[in-house]
Amino acid sequence: MGNPHILVIPYPAQGHIIPLMVLSQCLARNGFRITFVNSESNHQLIRNASASNDYLDNQIHLVSIPDGLQSSEDRNKPGKSSEAILRVMPGKVEELIEEINSSDSDKISCVLADQSIGWALEIAEKKGIRRAAFCPAAAAQLVLGFSIPKLIEEGIMDEHGTPTKEQIIRLSPAMPAMNTAKFVWACLGNKEAQKNIFGLMVKNNKAMKLTDWLLCNSTYELEPEAFNLAPQILPIGPISASNRQEDSVGNFWSEDSTCLQWLDQQPQHSVIYVAFGSLTIFHPTQFQELAIGLELSNRPFLWVVRPDTSKEKNDGFLEEFQDRVGNRGKMVSWAPQQKVLAHPSVACFVSHCGWNSTTEGVSNGIPFLCWPYFADQFLNQSYICDIWKTGLGLNRDQNGMITRGEVVNKLEKLLRTGEFKTRALDLKEIVINSVKESSGSSYQNFKNFVKWMKE
């Protein structure tokens, strides 16, 4: 019958696409045919950013469907994007499956869908196709979603997901602390967005009952209590640790590899790496406070500054800033992050704490300075600072600003002694062992999944 054909469907956002693309590479190496579905706009971004489309096409067949959104601005609004995705994409995915399955030789064997789009699993079930879900976030985030009925029953929030009061809770004593105001659906500052995201999570809980496999980009050793609370979640990550030698795939922007040559010229464990993912946007004053904090640290730094990092253009400020710091500071619009974090010159990671960045930092033994922006990033900070103790958080002043002084002080505290680095290296060893061939727990789960797909 030939090799199984897997239809892979991510939620259409950078942080969801990259780990599913890497997982697709791993599956392709095991002999599977992969069709990877992106929205039209993301498909074009990935095409434009890929140094070699042949490399992708030889392993993964990329296809695109409309996402129902008119502008990139709408795509960066979680509530608006989730509503449009739910309205438009299911019908387009169903049409795509019908088109592929009309061929006698190339039928879809399995739908592998992002856990946050449960409707894809419903379509697969309706068509009698095997199903697997993949969570690109921490298992703890999934457990929080599964806990929604209990949180409502206990009066922690109402049936619309609105917290009854701001408080710190733990789903169990060994789980990371969670601020109810920072729940992934409640921290958006917009009631309509909250309603859409919360409704999607409730629907996804039902859809998860339709899946044959619920895979997660994590490992037992990073989150033992989360996996105890939800044993149906099977960790196969960190995906980044199992794919360390490959070029990165799925980026929306072209990587500027000149930063690697710049890193080669810096002393070992000296460089502050600063990157806030694909969605973080700074108020201009906050952007400048961060810049001046890096300048005052008197340490070399590599800073990823996307063209849309700040709400206003900072060209004049940045030119003067670059003149002052000279070659001590390197700024790029997008970096080959895996290679940067693996570089011996890097001392720490100033991060928004997205789960991909978190696991990449952990897999390379890097201490963190945590600057979460929204969604699950606050939960990930709690893991880094409170559970693993491999990083520090930043405190805001009375105006809600993280000042230059706070940046300097926390960097000094993080790097002054070797305690954070020691713990980070210990955690790295544990995580790398989890993806080791033959003996790693994540590797074994992945091999069992591959075996099931070939049955």
Question: What is the topological layout?
Answer:
Blueprint: E1 5-9, H1 14-29, E2 33-39, H2 40-49, H3 53-59, E3 60-65, H4 72-75, H5 78-101, E4 110-114, H6 119-126, E5 130-135, H7 139-146, H8 148-153, E6 168-169, E7 178-179, H9 191-207, E8 213-216, H10 224-229, E9 233-235, H11 258-264, E10 271-275, H12 284-296, E11 301-304, H13 315-325, E12 329-332, H14 337-341, E13 346-351, H15 355-363, E14 368-370, H16 377-387, E15 391-393, H17 404-416, H18 419-434, H19 441-454
Parallel strand pairs: 1-2, 1-4, 2-3, 4-5, 5-8, 8-9, 10-11, 10-13, 11-12, 13-14, 14-15
Antiparallel strand pairs: 6-7
> Mean of residue pLDDT?
90
In what range is the share of β-strand residues? 5-15%
As a percent range, the share of helical residues equals 40-55%
Strand line-up across the major sheet: 3-2-1-4-5-8-9
Radius of gyration equals 22 Å
Low-confidence stretches: none
Give me the secondary-structure category. Answer: alpha/beta
Helix run count:
19
Largest sheet: 7 strands, parallel
The dominant shape is globular
Q: Roughly how many Å apart are the termini?
A: 11 Å
Summarize the structure.
By secondary structure, this protein is an alpha/beta fold.
